[in-house]
Specification:
The structure holds 2 protein chains of 2 kinds.
Chain A (H helix, E strand, L loop, with lengths): L1 H27 L7 H10 L11 H38 L12 H15 L4 H26 L3 H25 L7 H6 L7 H25 L6 H6 L4 H23 L5 H13 L3 H25 L8 H25 L1
Chain B lengths: L1 H23 L5 H23 L4 E3 L2 H9 L6 E2 L13 E2 L8 H6 L4 E5 L3 H12 L4 E4 L4 H15 L2 H20 L9 E7 L4 E3 L5 H8 L3 E2 L12 H7 L3 E6 L3 H14 L7 H4 L3 E3 L2 H4 L7 H12 L12
Parallel strand pairs in B: 1-2, 1-4, 2-3, 4-5, 6-8, 6-9, 9-10
Antiparallel strand pairs in B: 6-7
Helix pairs in contact in B: 6-7, 7-13
The chains are: A mainly alpha, B alpha/beta.
């Protein structure tokens, strides 16, 4: 027990240092247009450096880039990282299936379809984007749960229902793009997800959704571990299983919907981060949630940093980097784990 | 003995019959050979003449269809975006711009199919049609010289040199006149060309046809390079700080305008751009800068000339 606590503390501290390191790197990394020195001076001067008039053009550019471009973007990456990974963790524990993730059971697809609909029906209205994104995420989650409850809630049924719903919403998105081909300038970028078209307004409007989702997680946290004992045992121990499960899915939809409204259809984070932290730290929800809170943002920040710096002044979609780095890394962890268990 | 003789006679008869059958297909005399050769040549000439002017032409976009109509041709089929064009006549729909219908195209029994290489579905259709030996022409217009070349080729097919004169030579002359009067203070200034849709903004590079227009006025595209990537970083745009920003809406203009206004007016980072502060952000008309202007190329130049001379209203709604 003491050993586990020590291990957890070690993983947390490492993660926090990693997260802070990547966060500051994403703010202060230089490129051909802005030097590390100017960025560092702007950082030390604070946001007030934007209003200074007696600074050089290079210093002013560094201040604008740091405070008005990189900081909102890094903040969005942190929020989406924790939102998607917590969403995945909630789904995996409440539905007792480690293969679930917002992207697999159609939550991301549902949110993405509604973001496109909001762009067509309410162009330029950021609030509509956030609200419709959550609506799509929640609708997809509810459809999956409905199908699974009628067909039998087995792991396979959930996955199959999720895949079917995901395909349905993807088909709707493709239909919208077919009828309105001009609605999406860059379909590949939209499908892969990223932060290149992030605006401060959309970040601000997504905060209530993130806040609501996180508050729900805090409220639901103590009861979530009981799901691991099975529905009957949990019910016997006083947990209102159906209501708790519904609220977990609602929270997952809030967090995913908010994330999709910022970063598009970023997948994979919600699958690999919860599985990675559970490999390391076991099954307790509180422990896993804290680690998702740390490592989810760190991973997504790193992917976004690579996406915008690798081919500067051009950017790649962060989702592309996420898949290219994340998938081999995850496969490596799985193979290493199998080898360790075999020994 | 009698049997052997009978067999011999039978074999000789079969051989004779075979020779007669084969020789029936051969020309009986040299004059016949000559007549046949003349007939074949005449048919070839006639075929050649017929192939010069395709009778059934399908166009897989409005602007491509416009090229053929400007050259004096008629269209049998066109995608939905071009059904309301002037001079379209009885042309039938052959699907949408993004997803043309190969069945509808084949139903026209086309002599020529015109399409673009920019859209993946067009490339797929082109491959299939080529495999069916249907003549296909891939249209790629990046500058006025390309438009010139295609109208020249098409007017040769239709025999309408007068239309080449009207739609190319006169247009080029008008462009030259406009460029003679171009404002000198625009030379060397930088610009950002932004294609805006409901969901995303994207910087356009020099291979976009409108870039030639801006370049002819001496403007420099900040997104000009050899990279195949086109998602320009906001940091790079801020660093370059272009003097002009030209917004080309994709899709419904009001939706795209609302989306980019939200990006420009609400995002603090974009407020730092000189073009935004000085009111030099311009929404360009779709029919001249999103679609190829074709015979209206000179109008596109005139639009830019007015803009650079300060005779155009800015996005702030005030005279500059």
């Amino acid at each position: 027990m003491k050993k586990d606590s020590k291990k957890f503390r070690y993983i947390c501290i490492t993660g926090i240092l990693l997260l802070l390191g990547i966060f500051f790197l994403s703010l202060l990394v230089p490129n051909r247009d802005v030097s590390a020195g100017n960025l560092f001076k702007a950082f030390l001067s604070g946001p007030g450096s934007l209003k200074k008039e007696d600074i050089t053009k290079a210093a002013r550019l560094a201040a604008v880039i740091l405070w008005q471009v990189r900081l909102p973007r890094a903040s969005a990456a942190v929020l989406c990282g924790l939102g998607l990974s917590l969403s995945g963790l909630l789904l995996q524990i409440s539905l007792n299936n480690s293969l679930l993730a917002p992207s697999i059971i159609g939550i991301n697809s549902g949110a993405g379809t509604c973001v496109l609909i909001s762009a067509l029906l309410f162009p330029g209205m950021t609030l509509a984007r956030s609200v419709l994104s959550f609506t799509g995420a929640f609708a997809a989650a509810m459809i999956v749960c409905f199908i699974a409850s009628r067909a039998g809630i087995s792991k396979t049924t959930l996955i199959l229902a999720g895949v079917a719903v995901s395909y349905l919403f993807t088909a709707v998105t493709d239909m919208i793009i077919t009828w309105h081909p001009d609605s999406v300038t860059d379909k590949a970028g939209f499908s892969l997800g990223g932060f290149s078209s992030l605006s401060s307004t959309s970040l601000i409007f997504s905060l209530p959704l993130f806040a609501a989702g996180l508050i729900l997680v805090l409220i639901l946290g103590p009861g979530i571990d009981l799901f691991l004992l099975g529905d009957e045992t949990a019910q016997g121990l006083g947990l209102p299983v159906a209501r708790w499960r519904f609220l977990c899915i609602l929270s997952a939809a809030l967090l995913s919907g908010a994330s999709v409204s910022l970063c598009g259809l970023l997948g994979f984070v919600g699958l690999i981060i919860p599985n990675l932290v559970r490999m390391v730290s076991g099954s307790r929800f509180r422990v896993n949630a804290i680690l998702c809170f740390i490592y989810g943002p760190a991973f997504l920040l790193l992917c976004d940093l690579a996406a915008r710096q690798m081919f500067y002044p051009y950017e790649l979609p962060a989702g592309l980097i996420l898949s290219v780095i994340g998938v081999p890394f995850f496969i490596g962890v799985l193979l290493k784990r199998k080898k360790r268990l075999a020994l | 003995m009698k049997c052997a003789l009978r067999n011999e006679l039978l074999s000789a008869s079969v051989a004779l019959a075979a020779v007669l059958i084969v020789s029936a297909g051969l020309p009986a005399s040299a004059s016949d050979v000559q007549t046949e050769a003349s007939a074949a040549e005449e048919e070839e000439v006639q075929t050649e003449e017929e192939s010069k002017e395709p009778q059934s032409v399908a166009a897989l976009s409005k602007s491509i269809g416009d090229l053929w109509l400007l050259s004096g041709g008629k269209l049998s089929g066109i995608t939905d975006d071009g059904l309301k064009m002037d001079g379209i006549g009885d042309a039938v729909s052959i699907g949408s711009l993004a997803k043309p219908s190969e069945e509808s195209i084949l139903a026209l029994d086309p002599d020529l199919v015109l399409l673009t290489g920019d859209i993946p579905s067009h490339k797929a259709v082109a491959e299939d049609l080529k495999n069916k030996d249907i003549p296909v022409e891939v249209i790629d217009i990046e500058k006025f010289a390309d438009y010139d070349a295609y109208i020249r080729e098409f007017t040769r097919l239709t025999g309408r040199d007068d239309l080449y004169e009207k739609n190319v030579t006169e247009v080029k002359s008008a462009i030259d006149d406009i460029l003679k009067e171009k404002p000198e203070d625009a030379k060397g200034k930088t610009y950002l060309e932004l294609r805006v849709s409901a969901t995303k903004n994207k910087a356009l590079k020099d291979d976009y046809f409108a870039s030639e227009i801006f370049s002819d006025f001496g403007l420099i595209n900040i997104a000009s390079d050899d990279s195949s990537l086109d998602n320009l970083s906001v940091e790079a745009i801020l660093a370059e700080d272009p003097d002009y920003i030209f917004v080309i809406p994709q899709g419904k203009e009001d939706e795209a305008k609302a989306a980019y206004e939200q990006a420009f007016t609400s995002d603090p980072a974009w407020q730092n751009l000189s073009a935004v502060q000085n009111g030099r952000v311009y929404t360009m008309p779709k029919d001249l800068f999103q679609y190829k202007p074709d015979a209206r190329w000179a109008e596109a130049y005139a639009y830019v000339a007015d803009l650079l001379s300060g005779n155009m209203e800015t996005e702030a709604g005030t005279e500059s």
